[in-house]
Structures are given as C-alpha cells and as structure tokens.
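Input sequence (319 aa), recorded before submission:
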Amino acid sequence: MDDPRPVSIHSLVRKGLGPAQPVKARPARINHTMRPEDVFRATLSDCLAQMTANAATLRVGRSVEGLHQLRVALRRLEVVLKAFGEEFRQDWLSDLRGRAKILSARLGPARDLDVFVTELLDAPADASEREAFLSLRTHMEEMRDKAWKDAVECVAGADFALLAEDMAALVHSRLPLARDGKLSRMARRLLDRQQTRAFKRGRKARGGDEADLHRLRIALKKLRYIAEFLAPLYDKREVKYYVRELRGLQEHLGAINDIAHVRATMATLLRETDTKRIAPGERYVAGLVAGWYRARRPHIAKQALKRWKKFRKVKPFWG
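Predicted structure, token format:
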C-alpha cells in the first residue's frame, strides 16, 4: 500500500523544512479489505509520520508538546513492532524496536523534567520557605536545560536519522511477512494477546506495589495503542467506550507514576548538587515536595485499583 506522506515528511524534516507545530497521532487508516501486511505498513506509516513531524519542532526551538508527541510516536512505534513482530514471527523487527526504545529513553529526562517543572513543582510552601523553593526551581531549570540539550542532539543525530530511514524503507517494502492472511483473525489475536498480558499484570498489582502498578500501566497503554490501531475494523461506539474507560484507568495509574518521578527527580537533584553544597533550606523544600506527593499515594493507589476492578468488567469490543 503506497503512502507518499511519510517519505515527504521525512525528506522535509531532513532539510529543516518540516512542520513547526506538534502533531498528534492520527486515526488509523485501515479497513477490512486490507491484508495483514498492509495494515502493519499503514500503521507503521502513521507512526513514522508523527515521529518525523514532531522531530521538526525540536529542530526549530523548544516545543514541550512537540517533545511529548515525539515520545508518544516512538512508544507507538515500539508497540507496532512488538505486536506485529510476534504475530508475524519476524524476530528481526525486535532490533528496530530496540532502537526506537533507546531513542525514547534518551528523550525521557527532558520530558520528565518538563512535566516536573511545569505541572508537579507546585507543592504548597510557607512564605518562610519561598526563597528556598525558588532556589530549588532554579536548580531544576538548570537540569532541564541540560536534558533538553541532550534531546536536541539526539534528534539531530545519526541514530535518529537512520531509524527514520529504515522505517520508511520498511513501509514501502514488499517483504512477505504474515503467515495468516485473514485480517480478522490476526486483529483478534493481537488484542487478546495484549489484554491477557494486562490482566496478568493486574492480578499482580492487586497488592498496590508501586512496581506492579507501573507494569500494569505500561501494559494498559500498549493495549490502548493496539485498540486504536485496529479501531476501524470494529464498531465505532464500542471501541470509543472501551478506549474511554481505558484512558480513565490510565490517568489514575499515571498519577502514581508522577509521584515516583517526583521522588526520583528529587534524588537526582540532591545527588548532582551535593558537591555544590546545596543549602539546608533547599534540601528541606526538596523533601517537602517529595513528601507532599508521597502522602497522596495511598489514596490514589486505592482509587486506581477500584478503577481497575471496574475496567475488568468492560466487554472487549472485539468479542
């Protein structure tokens, strides 16, 4: 299935002429008449288009949303390569997935600090703590600047360009991939496989352990991506309801993940600034911020587990 869009966007990005606005994932462009290989390539094409378009925003300046959408594109790309790679039994796709995962990890610190500085660093502070709080924010902004420098270098580097080129080549290749030519059977297997994984993670997360809840969040995110990829093959209303419930659960689990990020970020700050003799007041405020979020965790975890219990009863739209 030929699609000139990814190649044209990719070439524009390489020339520095790409769109300067963040681009969200577009609705899947597949239908029942397509072969499994064509669905794979069309889905890969959409991930590549989102990836290269958002990379362009980082080439012309600091775009917080552009970086966010670039990481979303890379995560979606990882899911496509893993899900279809397993289905097609094409182990070599795991190498491409690994490269996408490495790039996403390199962009992670900048995105995490974007979220921390703009959304999470607002814990209450008394007037007497305001100076130390502002000093803490200054240190966080310095860490953020360094992380952004690394992110821009990553996008401008050879690894990113080579991955984009390899993805474009795969989109337009005609390599035989699928072992089963029936699209409906393949779609059901992809969804069943990821739902089974998510439910397995959910059983382990019932105790509220932070690591188990994190793994559940990741499994559910992958399930949502696969559901969105294959959505045009099913009843629109049923898909919409299922994805809406899934998103609601993810928001609860995401709040727990934010708390973990606060703790990790504060630890990194104190470790990196230890040799600079960080002021006692600033250490105190860092502990205050981490403690404020930590105190919220039990309630959030309880709500997340309730939402998970509700989601388990949602009927899968694929039957």
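Checked by second reader. Residues 236-272 form the longest helix (37 residues).
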